[in-house]
Amino acid sequence: MSRRTLPLLRTLSHHHRQSRAITYMARPGDGTPRAVTLISGDGIGPLVTGAVEQVMAAMHAPISFESFEVRGSMPAVPAEVLDSIRRNKVCIKGGLATPVGGGVSSLNMQLRKELDLYASLVNCFNLEGLETRHENVDIVVIRENTEGEYSGLEHEVVPGVVESLKVITKFCSERIAKYAFEYAYLNNRKKVTAVHKANIMKLADGLFLESCREVAANYPGIKYNEIIVDNCCMQLVSKPEQFDVMVTPNLYGNLVANTAAGIAGGTGVMPGGNVGQDHAIFEQGASAGNVGNEKLVEQKKANPVALLLSSAMMLRHLQFPSFADRLETAVKRVISEGKYRTKDLGGSSTTQEVVDAITEVLD
Questions:
Q1: Isopropylmalate dehydrogenase-like domain: which residues (predicted)?
Q2: What are the tens digits of pLDDT across the range 102-137?
């Protein structure tokens, strides 16, 4: 064998080792369908949850649904729904309308408190083929879900004077900070930004920041910085590509996630979920307009993309990554081709036409 042949053989051998596939070794019962609780929700909810059911069936995904009709106007989440989520551990839901004023509590908040879904995660990113003002946006907003202004701790002190309490605890602040840094570490993210207003709320937001700093010290490989929430909003709309993972208290996170969603393509394409130690609920990531309007419902033109991408997140949570990849690839292909898009994305397609296009290109 000539000397010139040896380097070539080494190169070929190296290429063979690098391109060799890794085989997933299934355990007995891995393919058994997992039961998932499905809440259809208000407005466009039945349309988009129906889209998820259709696509899952077309994929032959190992999922079975326990379906419930829940409306935001109900006084409380029915006990059988909570029992189902506790039993199945996982839920996917359409939007639940929260009446403005009137003292009616939010069923979304009730679900988060009852199941201790302490972390809300919204992934805001550019989709190929969908034109937006900014490029290279890929932001994950991780929001504390159980305390702060959204706790609903309000009362009327005297007629005409209402007191609303903002409660921040060390336990919940540390817990959400750990979740954010663990998420960054496991997903090869480079930076975590804490969003706050500690220059004014020195004790409450100060405690949140103190907790984030202590947790950050345990992750030296991840860059950590802080930003005041009003400056954060300005930076988001001017230079969003500077953000990677953001960790926030409850109220700020809702505002930041919806702003980031608008920058990256709109609420109709942003996936999200609420997770705790034992349970998870997946839903449209950005809350603005999550129940749509009557015209969308009548014309059956709701955008199913956000909930389909949320269901891909759910599949990964259930440890079915290949099904998640197939679904995400099909959704992104349809968006990129641009033939079938709902009105919010510049098209005129119905929900069903988008679903049919996605099922058509499933690998």
A1: 35-358
A2: 555 688 888 998 999 999 999 999 999 998 889 899
